[in-house]
Amino acid sequence: MNITKGKLHHAKKVVIYGPEGIGKSSLAAKFPDAIFIDTEGSTSDMDVARMDKPLSWAMLKAQVEYVKQHKPCRSLIIDTADWAEALCITAVCEQHGKNGIEDFGYGNGYVYEKEEFGRFLNLLGEVVESGINVVLTAHAILRKFEQPDEMGAYDRWELKLGKKTTNLIAPLVKEWADMVLFANYKTLSVAVDKEGKKHKAQGGRRVIYTSHHPCWDAKNRHGLPEEIPMDYEQIRHIIEPVQAAPISAVNESYPVPLPTEPPAEYYEQQFPETLNEASAANVPPALAELMTATGVTEEEICKVVSMKGYFPADMPIKDYPMDFVNGVLIGAWDKVHQMILENR
């Protein structure tokens, strides 16, 4: 039996859904080395890599199998899941000689569809296991929702799957995903009269909701804020984590410079505020020593990290993954320090 500890970096299963035209496809296109399987033909005006539009369920599965076997990309985008579901329903009806999903009677057709779509999600899971991110985009729809133990009903956003399959396919998709991100316009109701009886909507900024809410479905396992701007940079550190190099490779390729001239004591005397700042900011001790020895501040490191596209500039060092601190900041300190000097 093999027992492991700590975080395991792997490709991600992501669902992005929201109203039409909000930019789901554009956001998915930012994923690294992405290829689209465009089931609805919505990427014709986008500069992206794409496979032929699948004309059948069998063709769609064959395209996914091809990606799994040949690995032509780092991210596979299925755009959209609800149009893919339509292909699935057609295939189920043809297989059983039915003209429509309702012809099965007693809801059996939807059960067959659930089983077939479940096998499709398993195939996508195998793509993820091969090291390729999989992103499902989907439309959103407002539906009435009524809690069993509450009086009254309210509107909530849900995945726009078949009306009678919402309780079958949508749970499968949400359980399959590592992240379910709901994209929407953030509007505010502003009073336009002194009495506060008349209001009008203002705003329209695009945001992503990452956590469950009574009015929408969302989830993530990475500690994201409940609401973030609709920008790939907000999730880049999850999709493209920095891998730590083996200790031997770090020592061989990026020798950590040992300050000898002038001695470290000189910098400790000249830059005592740097040491105090590093300690107060909970910077790892090994990195704090390098900062103190060279008079480098946390702000300078964060600026360099942001310039390279790893993390936002306002993200403190204490929140960086330790493999990034050890493998990049400490392991390649000479290069980091050189960039800081150039910035100065």
Describe what this molecule looks like in 3D:
With 344 residues, the chain is of the alpha/beta class. The chain has 13 helices and nine strands. Strands 1, 2, 3, 4, 5, 6, 7, 8 and 9 form a nine-stranded mixed sheet that branches. 31% of the residues are buried.
Features:
9-stranded mixed sheet, alpha/beta, single chain, globular, 344 residues
Give a concise summary.
38% of the residues lie in helices and 19% in strands. By secondary structure, it is of the alpha/beta class.
Detail the topology: elements first, then pairings.
Elements: E1 13-18, H1 24-28, E2 34-38, E3 49-51, H2 57-70, E4 75-79, H3 81-95, H4 108-129, E5 133-145, E6 154-159, H5 169-176, E7 179-191, E8 199-209, E9 227-229, H6 236-239, H7 247-253, H8 264-270, H9 272-280, H10 285-294, H11 298-307, H12 322-330, H13 333-343
Parallel strand pairs: 1-5, 1-7, 2-3, 2-4, 4-5
Antiparallel strand pairs: 5-6, 7-8, 8-9
